[in-house]
Please model this.
Amino acid sequence: MKELIRNRIGHLREKMQEKGLSAYIIFGTDPHMSEYLPEHWQTRSFIAGFTGSAGMVIVSSDKAALWTDSRYFLQAEEQIAGTGFELVKMRTPGHPEPAQWLKTNLIKGAVAGTDEWCISINQFGSMQKSLAESGIILKETGDLLDAIWTNRPTLPDSSVYEHELKYACTDRKDKIGIICCELEKSGANMQIITALDDLAWTFNLRGSDVECNPVFMAYASVSAEETILFIDGRKLSPELKNKLESEGIRIREYTGLIEYLQQLPNTAKVWIDADRTNQAIRKNISTQAKIVEGLSIPCQLKAIKSEGEINHIRQAMRKDGVALVEFLHWIENNLGKIPVTEYTVAEKLTEFRTKQPGFKGISFFPIVGYKEHGAIVHFHVTEDNALPVEKDGFLLFDSGGQYLDGTTDTTRTIALAELTQRQKSDFTITLKGMISLTRAKFPTNTRGYHLDILARKDMWQHGLNYGHGTGHGVGYFLNVHEGPMSIRQEFNDRVIEAGMVMSNEPALYRLGEYGLRTENMMVCVRDESTEYGDFLRFDTLTLCPIDTKAIEKSLLNQEEIEWLNNYHQWVYDELAPMVNDELKSFLKEQTRAI
Model:
């Protein structure tokens, strides 16, 4: 594989030379600015061999560099070793940003190329401006990999299906109406929707073009006058196509967007999300049209779940909780008796979820880390790299499911034998961070970076920390990572609002030894109004025991002990009616008060 990557880099450099390029930039996404990609658009993996879900690549005439974040530092170092790529650690002191790297490695007058279909408007503008300061030109060159990618996977053509109204809770006509009202308030009269999860939510449609994400490749134009869905017609059954058209939704081919944009009249005031829309779309909007930039309206709307959606998510969590309890029971009764590997664990987690009604697949590839693999934050386990799991140390597993009534994401770390004092201390300090954020009460207009300290303060007191964010938004039978809000140290201007569903996952990683992460999903709800304003809090959604054998009780205060015992009582009360007597007895023991 290493030699294959080196050969691909060589072929790319030949194409760069033909185009007069000193560097070629691969932003590692698709025309929809997606995090998880159809195989056709997995360009970063093709050229560098790195399979993580975040990062970008630059190849110059004599160097090659991969940028990724702290979740993937260990994985990236392993996957690119011997390929000719260097790892540049994002948001890490001493490591340059991509534009700075280019300015250091290219001379004045050099030309850097990129595919404008796979770079956002803001990324393109920022990079172009920064490079121009050093006399370097950023040029649109098309997809150079297409010429060197033998047997490149074709664009996906999976069928699209309806997310029934009993689950979706709001019909698409009403959603489109709300979008149009928001457009009017903002001084625009139409929006070009490009993000795949925004499209799926708006039209109450789902697909399987991207593994683990129930989305489909399409674009849309929404206005009070007309709504157009640009989609490969083969994806729609005649019945679904007729139904959409009967509701006033025009169907045009996926490839017809550019022609449509070029013909927009001077009355068009187009709402564009410059972070979620590619540069090619921006460039092709008619010069007669007015551009209004802002966060995608469906992105804003779908982040705040309705009461009906939250009720469905709670039911999905019950089903997911049953599957996780079945897994915990299985591993306790089989470890040491039959061969078990990290890959076996991943397969079993999926197997137990598959038994649940409304299950549509996993929400991401399970992250299973035994002992030192637990310290690889997003370790992607395969049959080839899986460690055997034995009765010793920690096992971390982070997994989730896609159900018609919700998307789940849960992490637990369990002790497989007696732990050392440091292991128990580490586990408990990490747990304290999760409990602290869970118990937060805060005024409206609070942002995620204001809350992040609650998950880290006990760690910092012990000189500990973790490099990734603490919480991400979670979609509703959609992408497991959903914006626009987050809970992390980095600045994010989006406030946390009632109805937002998020993860809560502080962690601790000891390189070469183990990783610890306890993750629950939670929903922001209204708490109270006082003379000082309106206050919010979090309600926990996840139903799964936390391993009390790993806890050093002396490190917990009384409020934390009460929270844990109340949480476990709630888990038992919710799940016990859904399992058989053997599992009920097991669950009772797992949720016993400390």
